[in-house]
Amino acid sequence: MIDLRALEEDPDAFAANLRRRGEVGSLDELVRLTHARKAALREAQTAQETRNKLNDQMKKATPEEREQKRVELRSLGDRIKELEMTAKDTEERLNALALVVPNPPRPEVPQGKGSDDNVETQRVLEPRAFAFAPRDHVDVMERLGMLDTGRAAKISGARFAFLKGHGARLERALAAFMLDFHLARGDVEIAPPYLVSGKTLQGTGQLPKFGDDLFSVSFGPPKEAGPTPLYLIPTSEVPITNYYADEILDEETLPQRFCAFSPCFRAEAGSAGRDTRGLIRQHQFDKVEMVRFCTPAQALAELEAMVQRASDLMTALALPHRVMLLCTGDMGFGAEKTYDLEVWLPGQENADGTRGAYREISSCSTCGTFQARRAAIRFRPTPAPGTDPKKAPRPQPLVTLNGSGLAVGRTLIALVENHQQEDGSVAIPAALRPYLGGIDVLKA
After folding, report:
1. Which residue of 92, 94, 108, 110 has the fewest C-beta atoms within 10 A of its own C-beta?
2. How far is 57 from 60, CA to CA, in rounded Å?
3. Which of 173, 153, 230 lies closest to 197, judged by CA?
4. 281 is catalytic
């Protein structure tokens, strides 16, 4: 959730920064409600002060004056209750509206409307020069008996796939390789639930705004108590970020770094007709996720470290890639700064008939205090030595970060396309061979 106090202190500056993202439809109403709540509270405070003065005057008043002042006090009391109810109602509407307002961008985020305005900050490894026309991952994998989308469509519908043989084993090997890579660098592994509550999704920002992109399920006794809705997770960021919901952490325990492997389920409601071939955009896919909890002062260093981690993973697998700083118009709802890492896919066919394109494989973001406010996650700052306990700093929202480390399916795509051989086989990078029992080449 946005910082309503910051909005209240300087609505114009806050709104101007938020509009860098583009048109925010509810922003004017949010500003109006902020002013209305502040005015109601101010008037209630003034009325309360007047009532206190009248109570003091009652002690010295004559019997006639007391009766008059009692009438005034009753009237003031009714007015104070009315103003407090107005302020409470306005605050509830304000909080509900704030749930659909995106996170304001950091000052260094470039201004822009979409992906064309993103800024490339780094390029790692040069794409391979093929001595033959590279095939896309579907052709490579079907020739090797690794992929079957036809039978998956028969069973589940479009945008599902069977991985089999080398395909299934390669996906499992990649997930294990990624997890071990993170664990060797100090992350704590978590195996999260795959079903979560609506409140949990509200904490990370998927609800109420993006309900159409979620898969929901219901269970429980019919009629008597009614079904209890739960949602399949769109990413393990959701359960892990909420791991500390409604808790206060000590500053000394931060930063905390977690990683997790999980399936992800996305309806992809807004992507009809896009990437329908192969594994690029599926309703179900696997991902290894990085999640961080830290103080505001630690956030940017943690973000850069996550980006480097994702890049190092791709370098270990000999996958050419680039890092893109997203512009204001291309960031996710809950992010205040995001880097996308895009891997080179030599087999992808472009609109002009050429082959080869960079495609997103990881997105690393700092959400600032946006998710922490929604999920009520705070940290208690460490007081300076000798500080009076009564004057110790109050708990404040911490910063959450998340990033793909990596999307397993897209890594599999990148691996088979970049390391395909002219005879149709796929060479396995040295770092991955131990996870495949020493296999160095996948053959039919």
Report:
1. 108
2. 6
3. 230
4. yes
Give per-residue pLDDT as tens, 16-46: 999 999 988 788 898 889 889 889 889 989 9
pLDDT of residue 31: 85
| pLDDT category of residue 385 using cuts at 50, 70 and 90 | confident
How far is residue 118's CA from residue 340's CA, in Å, rounded to a whole number? 9
> Among 236, 363, 365, 404, which one carries the catalytic annotation?
363
The active-site residue, picked from 20, 51, 143, 281, is: 281
Query: What is the number of residues in the chain?
Result: 444
Which residue in 169, 85, 80, 237 sits closest to 432, CA to CA?
Answer: 169
Question: Would the pTM of this model clear 0.90, i.e. be above it?
Answer: yes
Q: Are 406 and 314 in contact (CB under 8 A)?
A: yes
User: Taking the mean position of all CA atoms in its chain, how far away is CA 444?
Assistant: 39
Q: Convert the pLDDT of each residue in 224-276 to its tens digit.
A: 555 678 999 999 999 999 999 999 999 999 999 999 999 999 998 666 667 77
Is 425 an annotated catalytic residue?
Answer: no
User: 3-state DSSP: the chain helix, strand, coil percent, rounded to 5?
Assistant: 45, 20, 35
Considering 8, 360, 425, 433, which one is annotated as catalytic?
Answer: 360
Q: Which of 106, 135, 309, 410 is catalytic?
A: 410
pLDDT, the chain, mean: 93
Task: Check: CB of residue 213 under 8 Å from CB of residue 268.
Answer: yes
C-alpha–C-alpha distance, residues 421 and 442, integer Å = 10
Q: What is the dihedral of CA 433, 437, 440, 444, to 10 degrees?
A: -130
Say what the pLDDT of residue 298 is: 98
Q: What are phi and psi of 354, to 5 degrees?
A: -75, 165
Radius of gyration of the chain (CA): 28
Confirm whether 363 is a catalytic residue.
yes
Q: Are 294 and 331 in contact (CB under 8 A)?
A: no
